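re the bet — no i am not wrong, look at it urself. input seq straight from the record:
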Amino acid sequence: MRTKTELSKRYFIFFISLFLQGFAIAMVARANLGNTPISSPNYVLSLHTPLSLGEITFLFNILLIVIQYFLWPKAQRKEQYLQLFLQIPISFIFAASIDVGMMVLNLFLAPTLPYIGAFSLLILGAITLAFSVSLQVTANATMISGEATVKLIATRLKFEFGYVKMAFDLTLVFLAVIFSLIFTKLSAIEGVREGTLIGALCVGPLVRIFMPKLKFLNTWFTKDPTSIASQTSDLKEDFKLVITIAREYGCGGRIIGKKLADDLKLAFYDTDLIQMISKESGLSLDYVSQNDQAMDSSLLYEMIMQDYFAPPEKSMSKQDALYVACAKVIRSLAKEKACVIVGRGANDILKDNPKCLNVFLYALLDKKLQFCKEHYHQDKEEALKAMSTNDKRRAEHYLHYTGKNINDPKNYHLSLDVGTIGIENCAKVIESLVKEKLKA
C-alpha cells in the first residue's frame, strides 16, 4: 500500500515527465521534419484550423477518454469514473506544455531552420520524449490518454500490446496523410516525414537505455526509515548466506565457486541454473542457455513493440521475461539454503540480502590467457575472442538491468586479482570472510 508521501513523490515525477513530453513534441513539431505518429494528425489539423497544436491535442485526448468509456464493459464503467476524470486535467497540462514549448521555441529559433539545425532539433526532441516516457513509467502513477487507450484496446481484444500499438500508430499516420491531402487538395503530405519514422523506431530503444538509469528513483519513492528497518528484520530471517561471484572471463570463477561450496558445505549454482530458469520462464533450454546473460539479437524489435507500462514478465520482450525468471529463481534459492551463485547479476538481484557476500574476480590479460590455455585449451586468438565476447555480453546485460558498470568495485564487498593472488588463495580469503560473517 502506497503512503501519501510516496504518492506525492510519484505524481511529482509524473508531472515533470508530462511537461517534458509536451516540450519534446513541440521540439519535434518545430523541426518541421515530420511528427511522431500519435501527434501527426493533430499537427496537420493545427496547420489548417485556428486551433494550436496543444488545443487540438487536448480535444484529441478528450475523444480518447470518451472512447475508453465506451470500451469498458457497462458493469465496470462506474469503477472507472475517477480514472477517466483524472485524465482530463492531465490532458490539459500535457496540451498546455506543448503550446508553452512551441511559444518558447518560437522566441529563440528562426522561423525557418537549415536542415542540419532542424534535424538536430528533431533528434533532441526524440531523446527528450524517450526520457520523459522513462520518467513516466518509473513514476508508475497514472497514464496519459493515448497510452491508456491502446492498453485498454489490447486488453479488450486480447491482442498483444505491441501489435495494437503499431496498428494505432499506423492509423494515426494514415489519418495525417488523409487530412493533408484533403486540406492541400492532393498537393502535399504534411506532418509525415523522417521525423515520423524516427519517432516510431527510436523512442522505444532510447527508453530501454534510460530506464535502468532511473531505478534510483524507486528508492527515493519508498524511502521510509521505519518500514526499511522492519523489512530488514524480516529479511534476516528469510534469506540464507549467499556468496555471489561475478568475474571476468578467464579468472576461474566457476573453479573458485565450486571450491568454496565444497569447503563450506554450501550448495553450488552455475550452469545448472539454466534448467531452473527455463522451467520458471517457460522458455526453451536452448533459448535460455544462449541468452540468459546476453542481449537478444531481436531486441530492437522488442524495444519498439514493448509495453513499458506492463510488468516485464507480461511484456513482449522474451529478454525481460528471462531476466525476471532468473531473478525469481535466484531469490528463491537464496531463501532455501546457503549457497554459492556464479554470475547472472546475482549480487544486484540479492542486494537486499544482508547475508550476502558479493565477490568480483579479475586479472591482468597475460594471466587470463594463461588460465584459458591451461583450463580451456584455447590458443591466444581463441582466448582473446572468448574474452571479448563473454565480457562484453555480460557487461551489457548487467548495465541494462541494473544501470551499473559490472566492473565497478562499489558493487561488491570484495574484489580480488586472481592472477596475482592465485585461485587457492582467493578461495581462502573468501572462506575466512565468510567464517567471520557467520560469527557476526
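see?? The first strand starts at residue 242 and ends at 247. told u. also The longest helix spans residues 4-31. so pay up
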